[in-house]
Amino acid sequence: MTGLVLTDDVVDPERDVVLEERRSRVDGDPSSQLGEAVAASLYMNHPYGTPIIGWEHEIEKLDRHDAIAFYDRFYTPNNAILVVAGSGDEVREAAQETYGKVARRADPGRRQRPREPEPRAARRVSLSDPRVTQPSVQRSYLAPSYETGEGDRPYALDLLSQILGGGTTSRLYKALVVEKAIAANAGCWYQGDALDDGRFAVYAVPRGEASLAELEVAIDQEIARIAAEGPDAGELQRAKTRLVADTIYAQDSQATLARIYGSSLATGGTIEDVAAWPDRIRAVTAEAVRDAARETLDRRRSVTGELLFAPA
Amino acid sequence: MTGLVLTDDVVDPERDVVLEERRSRVDGDPSSQLGEAVAASLYMNHPYGTPIIGWEHEIEKLDRHDAIAFYDRFYTPNNAILVVAGSGDEVREAAQETYGKVARRADPGRRQRPREPEPRAARRVSLSDPRVTQPSVQRSYLAPSYETGEGDRPYALDLLSQILGGGTTSRLYKALVVEKAIAANAGCWYQGDALDDGRFAVYAVPRGEASLAELEVAIDQEIARIAAEGPDAGELQRAKTRLVADTIYAQDSQATLARIYGSSLATGGTIEDVAAWPDRIRAVTAEAVRDAARETLDRRRSVTGELLFAPA
């Protein structure tokens, strides 16, 4: 965090490594290209629409001065969170003795965090490529995060994601894969660990001759059903048990345990939020899950991405 | 340009006027909402995706300090172009005597101009609203501007726009409105007067029971035809004559004449560019128009916007 020396000899080859990584992971992978276009359409105003690795033509221009400017602004103890997974005063004392010596080097200042305008138009992004061996459809909805959501909404979205699309007992999997047999896979995920609005996504991969349009109709039926009726008592209870258990089991890994606290603290949460999370999940009602589906899974808040095969 | 005094008494009501203008022009008009969503999807990285008037939640936060900061940075003679429509040394002397007194107040510095990454995915934005009385479809392609285009590409795009969709003798109008009778209107426009990449847009308004999908098929046929064969000699000649004549007639208005020079100088052009424009248009070949259609009107570079009626 202090005394870093960066020379062109070090920085230039690293920039080329990043470029090469981008080329192989994004340019070489149509689904990554689609993902970038979906994110850019979903976030009309917010930098979450910019890929974390950066755009190729901008990476190409980065040099030692950019790296040092970033380092000088952000790499300072007052902008860092140290998480030590372990116990006892010993580890705390050792950490304080070691890291406590690092002097404050900068003040990164208040971040300018643009907000998304209220989304009003359903968007669709299609990418056709000869390299596509497995077509798929996904839809991302702009969704409140744990930081921006009001009341128990983010907790309800975590449960909604579990009930609608978490694993082989979820509604989407049962309807599309098991009953209708039109999908090889189907599910959803909720990304609530963002400082600003995150995403709720649903996806499906067709099976046999099924079209992406058929999959979408079936997905929309399941969304409409849970938005109208909410989950039933049994499946809500099972989702709570599974979600809480998964999180508790995950903490058996010291690294995951540390990451949960670090990630919460870095995105506006507190240690109390982490501790209270299981109880808050358990307190979510069926009505709250229904309302989360109704208000968040609104087509106008969404971008649908289609990945299609096209002959060269 | 100098000595501006801004107080809250002046600024606060003006901000409310801007907000009110945005509410009536955008919130009250579904086609404007669609236009904002199309621009935001077209420009994945560039601020041209941000509406000029601004997003409502950001306008709300603007105050006197923001206005003064903008004024202090940009309102300085070294960042201004004075265009006087008239002739004679007298007017130049008067201008120099009057405006020449204004001292340099600031250096706005080099602008950071993000570039768009190469677009790879066709995008579609749908807006359904009970207030839509006239559905329509439009498609915007990311297109080189006079500043970013190479060789005679921007001149070819101006002619392509004229041939494909300029008025009632254009290909789109003849095919969709006259021959197929599926459209009440159809045409296109090219926005080449931007510092960074601009837009080439096609649009159509359905007639009778025609669907937007039918219109798109017919538009795509016309695009495919001109991208394959180019314009024929007669229509290229007529397009050149009309485009040059329109521009010359427009200069009969002193205000338009001044605006042409001001706009060119403000977006990287020169006085020579303005003077040479008619000759450069006349020199464009049929092959150049064909290539402009082939390379610019590629679906992967585009966002299609659909405006649809939906019951409340």
Characterise the protein shown here.
The structure is a homodimer of 312-residue chains. Chain A has 312 residues and is an alpha+beta fold. Chain A folds into 2 domains: 8-99, 2-Layer Sandwich (Cytochrome Bc1 Complex, Chain A, domain 1), CATH 3.30.830.10; 123-309, Metalloenzyme, LuxS/M16 peptidase-like (Cytochrome Bc1 Complex, Chain A, domain 1). Helices cover 49% and strands 13% of the residues of chain A. Chain A contains 12 helices and 5 strands. Chain A has helices at 8-27, 30-42, 56-59, 64-74, 89-99, 153-165, 171-179, 212-229, 233-250, 254-266, 271-282, 286-296, and strands spanning 122-129, 136-143, 183-191, 198-206, 302-309. Chain A has a 5-stranded mixed β-sheet with strand order 1-5-2-4-3, with helices on both faces. In chain A, a hairpin with a 6-residue loop joins strand 3 and strand 4 (198-206). In chain A, helix 6 (153-165) crosses helix 12 and helix 7 packs across helix 8 (212-229). The termini of chain A are far apart. The A-B interface holds A 33-34, 36-37, 40-41, 44-45, 49-50, 55-58, 114-115, 117, 119-128, 300 and B 33-34, 36-37, 40-41, 44-45, 49-50, 55-58, 114-115, 117, 119-128, 300, 305.
